[in-house]
Design goal:
- This protein has a 6-stranded mixed beta sheet with strand order 1-2-3-4-5-6, sandwiched between helices.
- It contains 4 helices and 6 strands; from the N terminus they run ββααβββαβα.
- Helix 1 crosses helix 2.
- The radius of gyration is 16 Å and the shape is globular.
- The chain is an alpha+beta fold.
- 25% of the residues are buried.
């Protein structure tokens, strides 16, 4: 467990026992980003407990209340011909922003990348989220313009 700059909050690696809390934070995160997500806690629990785990996540708590979370996955870049760490999610509840919690979560992801021998960390944020863009630029990120597309469910069938 890491003590954050906000000394009343703690960050720790999430386990399968945190799946319910993470699912609730994911739903809140999706709503903030004008989307919808309702992940099944059991599926998150399984992803967190595999060997190797499909996702690595951290949760920030204060007096037992979740304030935010971050989750990463390892991916492979064909362009670079090597693996990289993908910061899939980083979210801090609105009332707790501005306290350094997001920066501390971001540093956890960086630390994890280094521990895994990965030299690249990638992530995305909606183009309209100016606060997040400024945050990531302060963290040293470089803006890369791309459009993201998805196919879900039956759309994958030919």
């Amino acid at each position: 467990m890491t003590v954050l700059r906000d000394e009343t909050a703690r960050i720790r690696r999430a386990t399968s026992h945190d799946a319910e809390q993470i699912a609730a934070l994911v739903a809140e995160h999706a709503e903030y980003e004008r989307g919808e997500a309702r992940p099944e806690p059991q599926a998150l629990a399984q992803a967190l407990q595999g060997s190797p785990a499909r996702i690595v996540a951290w949760i920030v708590e204060q007096a037992g209340e979740p304030l935010g979370y971050a989750a990463v996955t390892e991916d492979f870049s064909t362009w670079r011909a090597r693996p990289f760490l993908h910061l899939d999610c980083l979210f801090v509840r609105a009332q707790y922003r501005g306290r350094g919690i997001g920066a501390d979560l971001f540093r956890e992801a960086q630390r994890h990348a280094r521990e895994q021998g990965l030299v690249t960390l990638e992530w995305q944020t909606p183009h309209w989220n100016g606060d997040a863009i400024r945050f990531y630029e302060r963290m040293g990120g470089r803006y890369a313009v791309k459009a993201r597309f998805t196919l879900d469910g039956l759309e994958l069938e030919l």
